[in-house]
Design a protein that fits this description.
Largest sheet: 5 strands, parallel
Number of strands: 7
Distance between the termini: 57 Å
Shape: globular
Order of helices and strands: HHHEHEHHEHEHHEHEHHHEHH
Strand content: 5-15%
Radius of gyration: 24 Å
Structural class: alpha/beta
Number of helices: 15
Bound molecules: adenosine-5'-diphosphate, magnesium ion
Length: 323
């Protein structure tokens, strides 16, 4: 098995291709040999962005509209690169995004993948993600907010700044709210440093809509709005299968049916948080499985014993007892 040919876009490689002219448009600074690329496949293969997109397709259950949007965005960026290679004038594309949807629908997970895709395609230098909320940006006292926000922006430079529940930045009910100061700095950075920082604002759809209405400046700087749907019960079941498999567990005889019943009940209860609730439910089932095995001091435990979630591990949940 040969080592994967992984080249960070922007780094020099000995591969063939005409020497690149100094790239003034640093936004999409490409490797010297990347400028010789003329096909979509060359760009995808060279950057390995294609691999990240494929992984995202395979690893994440459901999310069809989100996956389609990400493919569209990737297509735009790849074509943009090919245009640049032919010297076609282009502005650094605006890549700031909003990810709306209920808790546990995969916003943070997809943002991490997005950071990686942007990095592979050379739109950000490092591809790391800094995830923050209002408290990380806004200070308690006068003069504290600007340095706080700038510090966060500095950390995120070269990657993605993910602002969760972004609408908390805006508190019109407070006459002198420091959140506004943070928003103004973000606006400047989103405009002036968009060639090396991508901002993703995340949160509930309706609150984000209101937030954008009150902050048209921010809204106009967001190029892509991605709305994450709730998962269906079937998808939640598949997510559970996937999560269990990665943790080296499995549903035993009859357990999958019981879990499906669990999901049907849990979906109707308050604070249901999609895939996150699935993860939490699985954690509790593992606890119960452990207690069950722990109680049997002298039994030799096989691999099957240690990896199997049995129906009682699920049925002990409160969703089956509470009316
Ligand atoms: N489509 C999916 N397939 C598999 N696991 C998922 C999917 N969406 C979310 N998850 C998992 O669910 C959990 C919550 O997802 P997260 O991205 O934090 O949601 P959000 O940021 O929207 O609240 C994470 O553990 C994540 O790995
Ligand atoms: Mg999240």
């Amino acid at each position: 098995m040969g080592a994967p040919l992984y080249t960070i876009p922007g780094s020099a490689t000995p591969a063939a291709g005409p020497p690149a002219a100094p790239d003034v448009n640093a936004a999409a600074a490409s490797a010297p040999d990347a400028s010789g690329m003329r096909t979509v496949n060359q760009v995808l293969a060279h950057s390995q962005a294609g691999a990240v997109i494929d992984e995202l397709e395979h690893d994440l259950i459901g999310l069809a509209p989100i996956k389609a949007r990400i493919r569209d965005i990737a297509a735009l960026l790849v074509i943009d690169k090919l245009r640049m290679n032919l010297g076609l004038q282009a502005q650094a594309p605006s890549l700031h995004m909003s990810f709306t949807g209920n808790p546990g629908t995969g916003k943070t997970t997809v943002a991490l993948r997005m950071a990686e895709i942007l990095h592979r395609l050379g739109y950000v230098r490092q591809g790391h993600m800094v995830a923050v909320t209002r408290d990380d940006l806004v200070g308690q006292y006068i003069g504290h907010t600007a340095p706080k926000t700038r510090e966060v922006v500095k950390k995120a430079m070269g990657g993605v700044l993910f602002i969760d529940e972004a609408y908390y930045l805006y508190r019109p009910e407070n006459e002198r709210d420091y959140g506004q100061e943070a928003i103004e700095i973000l606006l400047q950075v989103m405009e002036n440093q968009r060639d090396d920082l991508v901002v993703i604002l995340a949160g509930y759809k309706n609150r984000m809509d209101t937030f954008f209405q009150s902050n048209p400046g921010l809204s106009s700087r967001i190029a892509h709005h991605l709305d994450f749907p709730d998962y269906s019960r079937e998808e939640l079941g598949e997510i559970a299968d996937r999560m269990l498999a990665t943790m080296n567990y499995r549903f035993g005889n009859g357990s999958r049916e019981v879990f499906d019943d669990y999901l049907a009940r849990r979906l109707k209860l308050p604070h249901f948080a999609n895939a996150r609730s699935v993860r939490n439910a699985l954690d509790r089932m593992r606890l119960r499985q452990a207690s069950r095995l722990f109680a049997d001091r002298y039994r030799e435990l096989t691999e099957i014993d240690l990896t199997t979630i049995e129906p009682p591990d699920i049925l002990a949940s409160r969703v089956f007892t509470d009316a």
